[in-house]
């Protein structure tokens, strides 16, 4: 009788511990949690924010006079290189900046209108001519690197954030600023910025 009682109590404890244990979930399209990525978890830049900032900037680029008049009408797709986007916020966003760069790169490649220099090749040449990877865009270094890469244009930019606090509320306004610079002339051929706000209430 005592043994049966102990066994029953043990089963109850095991069931309780399993009920309280963390449970992994899969989210996104085609799962039981399609809207898992919709809520913001913090004021940190997340995938949804990156997609919004990149899409808005590139929509403006593809609709610009520069793109329609110089890129789409070029005899051959011009070669573009992407200079690292500067993180000018106070946030530690190393992974997010890599995701942002990859998103820009993917969209440009898939447009079919330009050729994009592989970032691994760009980093290799940058080291050879003494440019620190991740350095802020500078015309002299870009011109040297551009000649090595055969690039006609460089895409560069920065991510900024305005951080505001009022009582128990914190709001960050992230702005992604993009520029396209023609290497031969140093002229800015396109620039645009998009802002995304996030808030955390205590």
Give an account of the 3D structure.
- With 202 residues, the protein is α/β, with parallel strands linked by helices.
- The protein has a single domain (47-201), classed as Rossmann fold (3-Layer(aba) Sandwich).
- It is built from six helices and six strands.
- It has helices spanning 2-20, 47-62, 65-71, 94-111, 119-128, 139-149, and strands at residues 79-82, 86-87, 115-116, 153-166, 169-182, 188-201.
- Strands 1, 2, 3, 4, 5 and 6 form a six-stranded mixed sheet that branches.
- Helix 2 packs parallel to helix 4.
- It is elongated and about 90 Å long.
Q: From the helix content, strand content and strand pairing, which structural class follows?
A: alpha/beta
- Helix tally equals 6
Distance between the termini: 53 Å
The biggest beta sheet, please?
Answer: 6 strands, mixed
CATH superfamily: ABC-type transport auxiliary lipoprotein component
Rg computed from alpha carbons, rounded to a whole number of angstroms: 24 Å
Q: Roughly what percent helix?
A: 40-55%
CATH architecture: 3-Layer(aba) Sandwich
**Could you say how many structural domains there are in total?**
1
Q: Could you give the order of the helices and strands?
A: HHHEEHEHHEEE
Query: So what's the CATH class?
Result: Alpha Beta
Principal-axis shape: elongated
Provide the CATH topology: Rossmann fold
Please tag this protein with its features.
alpha/beta; six-stranded mixed sheet; 202 residues; Rossmann fold
Per-chain topology:
Layout lengths: L1 H19 L26 H16 L2 H7 L7 E4 L3 E2 L6 H18 L3 E2 L2 H10 L10 H11 L3 E14 L2 E14 L5 E14 L1
Parallel strand pairs: 1-3, 1-4, 2-4
Antiparallel strand pairs: 4-5, 5-6
Helix pairs in contact: 2-4
């Amino acid at each position: 009788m005592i043994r049966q009682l102990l066994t029953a109590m043990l089963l109850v404890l095991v069931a309780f511990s399993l009920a309280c244990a963390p449970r992994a979930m899969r989210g996104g399209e085609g799962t039981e949690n399609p809207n898992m990525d919709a809520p913001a978890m913090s004021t940190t830049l997340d995938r949804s924010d990156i997609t919004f900032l990149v899409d808005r900037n590139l929509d403006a680029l593809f609709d610009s006079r520069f793109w329609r008049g110089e890129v789409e009408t070029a005899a051959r797709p011009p070669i573009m290189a992407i200079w690292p986007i500067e993180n000018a916020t106070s946030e530690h966003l190393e992974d997010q900046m890599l995701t942002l760069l990859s998103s820009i790169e993917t969209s440009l490649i898939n447009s079919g209108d330009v050729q994009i220099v592989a970032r691994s090749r760009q980093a290799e040449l940058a080291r050879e001519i003494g440019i620190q990877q991740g350095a802020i865009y500078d015309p002299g270094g870009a011109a040297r690197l551009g000649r090595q890469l055969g690039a006609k244009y460089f895409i560069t930019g920065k991510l900024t954030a305005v951080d505001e606090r009022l009582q128990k509320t914190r709001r960050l306004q992230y702005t992604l600023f993009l520029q396209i610079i023609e290497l031969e002339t140093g002229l800015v051929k396109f620039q645009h910025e998009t802002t995304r706000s996030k808030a955390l209430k205590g």
